[in-house]
Automatic annotation (TrEMBL):
Domain of life from the UniProt record: Bacteria
Keywords linked to the UniProt accession: Membrane, Transmembrane, Transmembrane helix
Membrane-spanning segments: 12-41, 53-74, 81-100, 120-139, 146-166
Protein name, UniProt field: Uncharacterized protein
Amino acid sequence: MVVLETKSKSGEVAATIAGCLAGVAAGVNLVGGVILVRSFVNDPGELDDSLTLFATLGALASVFAFAYGALLLARRNETGRWMIMVAAGAQLALGALGLLATLVNYDSGYGIHWFAEETVVRSILIGLGGVPGAVTAIVNHSWAAALSGAAFGGLVLLSAALPWTAAYTLTRPDDVVGPNV
């Protein structure tokens, strides 16, 4: 009985951490999208139209996936855990692409540069801006922004993929209304 209670508590803690990190990821994606749109509205010539549109749509999709995934995870629904893992994996992949673009000095040839003259500390904060931050890291060849975006995506992915988080969603009480997907 003591072992079961300890396992239940560790699963609850792991799921709470995963849900909180997913909530933070939703928030930073929303902030990153708002900053990008605000910068575009203030000076439309500085940012590329289509890249701004797709980065903003990616940020909104990430906000939905992280927020709804966290809500479902709080309800002990396995689908929420998977939504968080997919969204965090996408953010990790974008950060890894940013690191790869920096490593090989990729240049699209279009002359697109956003927020190019930033310090390392500001680049780290930009990288934590979710999808817009990862796209900015790719465009500007910012290793600090790409590394911070990939690290945060990996942290969220790791917390949702822990076996204790999975055990928490699979041990859903019978008195909860709704299907356990």
